[in-house]
Amino acid sequence: MWGCAYAPFAGFGGGFGILLCLLLLSLLLLMVIKVSRVSAPMGASKADSAPPMEILKNRLANGEITIDEFNTLKQLLR
Fold first, then answer.
1. pTM exceeding the 0.85 threshold for the entire prediction
2. Which of 9, 17, 33, 71 lies in the 20 to 30 Å Cα band around 43?
């Protein structure tokens, strides 16, 4: 009766074994999430890696800046 080890994870420390397993699984999940965020940061796009002159040209084409602003910024980049 007292020697019965039927409970799951009984050889793993009983109730503390279950908590330990949940803690380890949680830590593993957090590590996977952290690694996935480091390898592909949120909001990263091709525009972030484009050369500055290309960004300026795109902004001018989209009407975000005027020709005068474009020429001023172009001089600053040189």
1. no
2. 71
